Amino acid sequence: MPELPEVQTTVDGINIVAKNRKIIDTWTDFTSSAKMFSNTIKNPIYFEKFKLAIQGAKIIKAERRAKNILIHLDNNETILIHMKMTGHVMYGSYIFNKKKNSWTPAPGQIALEDPYNRFIHVVFTLDNSKHLVLADVRKFAKVILLNDETREEINLLGPEPLSEDFTYETFSKNINRYQNKYIKTSLMDQRLIAGIGNIYSDEILHESKILPERLVSSLSPIDLKIIYKNIKPILRRGINFGGDSTSDYRNIHGERGKFQGKHKVYRRTNQTCFGKDCDGTIQRKMLNGRSAHFCRMCQK
After folding, report:
1. Which of 77, 212, 236, 298 could make a disulfide contact with 275, Cβ separation 3.0–4.6 Å?
2. How far apart are alpha carbons 266 and 108 in whole angstroms?
């Protein structure tokens, strides 16, 4: 699932390519009669209302809240996109095949031809004849208009770790709310901190020399200060390298990020630890249904 750096990279890209552009038309082949999707564009009735609400509106700016993309329009509507497991947003010129009811990139856009980019399920046609599209192989992504209920849900999310308000006191207070949770699980809990997932929690804990299976109750104030100190630099590093494309994630131009080449532990099972003066081997363990990667030699 795209985490904070991937979502921020996407938001930055949207602001570069689509800011001040009008949405001329909207298309989707998402469709479901399931009740759980009744307030998303997967419901055909909702989609028609969604399409009408945004048609002709101008994109003012995009921003990120946790793992959500928020696209603000000049008619006071906001499109919320959550990319879920395999979604990513791209920009370019696309051609619609009416017979196949599908979209493909116009010739000459090499990055958009990446196999992971071909599963186009939402298309926003812009006033410059370009398209903002959502690719999603597993079709889990969520696209809705922000309303009072979803605003309240977003407000209940934890603090943004890259904000100035994310102080050590805030971090410590939130993490200590659940003393019997694994520290990795707590770092990934969106109620406690917004935006951190599997990849970056592993990297943060390795840099902090803390085992992911440690209970919060076992961590000293010094341990927590070390973890806190490593959160911002590692997330910023992820952004600086354009996100992580270990799996499906691609940026606004359909290109892979580069952070996967900078992992010290994530997906490096049985490989030598990159820790300074450490000859340990990276191990993998399941914690609460999520994989954790770590080195027992240098993480304690």
Report:
1. 298
2. 35
**Strand, helix or coil for residue 286:** strand
Residues 6+ apart with CB under 8 A from 68: 7, 80, 81, 82, 154
Residues marked active site are found at 2-3, 67, 290
**Phi then psi for 62, rounded to 5 degrees?**
-115, 150
On whether the pTM is more than 0.90, the answer is yes
Tens digit of each residue's pLDDT (9 = 90 or more) over 119-174: 999 999 999 999 999 999 999 999 999 999 999 999 999 999 999 999 999 999 99
Cα–Cα distance between 204 and 236 in angstroms, integer?
Answer: 12
Phi-psi region of 267 (alpha: psi -120 to 50; beta: other; left: phi over 0): left
**Domain parsing of the chain, residue ranges:** 4-155, 168-295
Report the length, in residues, of the chain: 300
Q: Report pLDDT digits (tens) over 183-242.
A: 999 999 999 999 999 999 999 999 999 999 999 999 999 999 999 999 999 999 999 999
Beta bridge partners of 290: 287
The number of beta carbons lying within 10 Å of the beta carbon of residue 220 is 8
| Residue from 102, 69, 105, 100 nearest 84 by CA | 69
Question: Which fold would CATH assign to domain 4-155?
Answer: N-terminal domain of MutM-like DNA repair proteins (3.20.190)
Write out the H or E segment, with its range, that includes residue 294: strand 290-295
3-state secondary structure (DSSP) of residue 99: coil
* Domain 168-295: which CATH number of 1.10.10.250, 3.30.70.20, 3.40.1280.10, 1.10.8.50: 1.10.8.50
